[in-house]
Amino acid sequence: MPKCLLIIDPVPTNRIRLSAVFEAAQYDVVTVETPHDATRFDLPDPDLVILGVYNEQPVKALASLKRTGIASDVPVFCLDADASPLRRLQALRNGAREMLARSTPDALLLARLRSLIREGDAERECERRRVTATSFGFAEAAYPFGTPACVAFVMADDVPVILPDIIRGSLPHNLEILSLDDALRGATTAVEPDAYLFAPGSDEEALDTLLPELRVRSHSRHAPVLVLHQADKPDLAIRALNLGASDIAADTASGDELAIRIDDMLRRKRLRDTLRQTDEQSYRLAATDPLTGLYNRRYAEAYLADLLMREVDQSRGYVLMLVDLDHFKIINDEHGHPVGDRVLCEVAARLRDNLRAGDLVSRHGGEEFLVVLPDTDTIEGEVTAERLRSAIGEVPIMLENGVEVCVTASIGVGFGHDPGEREVAAKTGTFDVAEVSNPVSLQRLFDAADAALYRAKSAGRNRVEFSVS
Q1: Which of 73, 98, 212, 458 is surrounded by the most beta carbons within 10 Å?
Q2: How confident is the model over 391-423, as pLDDT tens digits?
Q3: Any catalytic annotation for residue 98?
Q4: Which residue in the list 119, 311, 346, 367 is annotated as catalytic?
């Protein structure tokens, strides 16, 4: 669906010209003369507001727009016949995201418009997902507001050396001066930069090197970039936006204007970082058991489907264990369910402590645990199973009141060794459990381990039994 632009401009010829430019770029355009006019009609919600400033101070024009409430959550893009540094600063201070001159080339106008729409879409999506995450009980990640950020200033050789001092005078953040090579290496600052300010000077080709590389480097892929371009080179600004720059500013911009732009970039970055951390927390909650902190059954089954595909290139196979606590109901009945939960958590910790970093341990359900050992032969699997049984049963679990609870476990072990079946799995090209072409092999392995577990229980418990799938 095309994006909707709301043009508010008191001059009819301006509205007509802008409409033609934006409609040719496949935008839906609505035009009105004043902000008040936009409230008199049933207009679609805009993705961006273009506000023409004419014969008045930007402060007054933006205040009139705010009173209508139509631009409370969308970017506002000001166009002004006199887009002087002072008027740009007034516009930015009063909520506008950008101010450009009416004489700005159409290509630059469209490039900046696209970047503002992307940012507006991202902010609204962040807010929607934040609200959704809150409704599910996921707390927002804390962010150290008020802590100065680290801004890396990447300068070409012909940029005036006084420029960093001008920026430092207005910027409430730490400014680190970097060469192009330093920025790409990312190893010269004490902390990873939160944002970049790039002044390529006359070296236009440096843009083609730096911006794409910053997007793929681990230390900089999430950091916004403000490109400082020469005022008489709009093509450089267009190239910067098309390469992914978060913002642009002419080299005639004041230190205060750059500070506002950088603070705005950092605010949006904090929003995205918070959302990303909330997403990561959501993924962890979706994949883990809330009591023990182990992976849950759903994650383990997806892991096994993946393992079936990867095992085709490994000759040693893998091991699956079902670990079931003996007489766990008696523990709950005699000591209560809180003690039972304490026992489950301690057993989970003992399992984790006695496995390799690459092994998987999950809570399979109730008092049963699933252990998967990739790249493991039969002898190693037997040794590990006995070690886990001993780790669980040899030392009683001490409760806070001094009571000792003795618990043992029975373990059933299955071995995955069928290269023919693994080859079939590898050819499916999917890691989706539901779409694995040989789910029978997964079920066969579970059945083998379950049968071995049943024999361990029947033979007196606190023992390990083995089977081959």
Answers
A1: 98
A2: 999 999 998 888 899 999 999 999 876 443 343
A3: no
A4: 367
